[in-house]
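User: I'm curious whether this sequence folds into something compact or stays loose and floppy. Could you predict its structure so I can see for myself?
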Amino acid sequence: MVSINLQARSESSPPLKGSPSRGLAAATFGFFVGFAAVALYGPAAKELKGLMGLSGLLLGLLVAAPQLTGSLLRIPFGAWVDKVGGKKPFLVLLGLSLLGMAGLTLLLALLYPKGLTRPLYPVVLVLGFLSGCGVATFSVGIPQTSYWFPRARQGWALGTYAGLGNTAPGIFTLLLPLALAGLGLVGAYGVWFAFLLVGTLVYWLIAHDAFSFQLARRGLSREQAKEQAADRGQELFPTGRLVDALKISARIGRTWALVLLYFTSFGGFLALTSWFPSYWSLYQGTSVWLAGVLTALFFSLAASFVRIGGGVASDRLGGERVALASYIVILAGALVLVFARAFAPALVGEILMAIGMGAANAAVFKLVSRYVPEAVGGASGWVGGLGAFGGFVVPPILGAFADAFGKAGYATGFLIYVALAVMSIVVAAILAARFGKRESHA
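Assistant: Here's the prediction. I'll summarize afterward.
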């Protein structure tokens, strides 16, 4: 009787909303809006350093601030999607980011320039943490997109989602210096706040959870919602066991090998997206605008597009081989940057880092499902969340080198990437020796 009533209620309810293409567009747009916060302080670092009298360490911590919340919140918010769908977690993260941007815009409007002094550093840092919540939307959009698409189109859908959304930091690193030059610091961040506000509203209007979540909210049981959603074409459904998956994957050594690799490549990508503007302007002496252009075109956007080709190469050659080659390229780029004093070789080093990191990011996630098939979701959470944590850890270390060695420290600091690359090469070589032949034979 209850089942009949629920079914009748479902049939009399308004039609379900959304489609796979709309789901992909909404998730990609929301991720793009939130992920831009990776570049929050990088292009303005030179001015903030002068206004607030920051050391290299404090500057590195400031430009890395969005990466802390953006990485650590990936794990719990990604898990929350299985319970409520993706729209609510997305809006919470974007709302927190809005709160941070609103506070930053208000602070600048009231105190810039003379009132923006060193004692306000903790406030600016906390606002960076809040603004960075939008960076964590990556882990929400992945399952949100997955539940809309059949298994046969998962690779294309997720590749489109990650590839397009990942361009946001590069585009904002390119545009923010132009806004700073044309509108000033207050105006530039005011426009960014307006963009984030409008973007959040647009996401709220266009986003819909997959059919099973919509049906569950109408009172259907989990099985009834799954059955009716399957009739409408949905193939993937939440298991509700992500906590167990996190526990299982944490006990598997291969998970932590992938975390280390992703810490170097994707964490390194986030770190350098925020740090390269400081390197170019404070060490190479370029203008703030040119520093943004060099970072955006030759590093951030380049690495994002190389990631697509890295995925194709990993399918054909094996993730281990591509990973090993990629970390060798990262090592070469880091060594060039350590010793480069002139502009041209430094640019070559940056490009090598972009190529290596972009390809390595694709190779690592190619290996997740093969190495931890019994807990893919949990392994993805650890790899994506803790790997991205490198974006927060590395910039303060680079800043500490600048404090210790003066201007030369901006180049010497890339020794941290030499060390990370060497460790990653060793790990990738071990994985290639133990598992690479098995994959190529298969």
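Summary: DSSP finds 21 helices and no strands in the chain. The longest helix spans residues 168-206.
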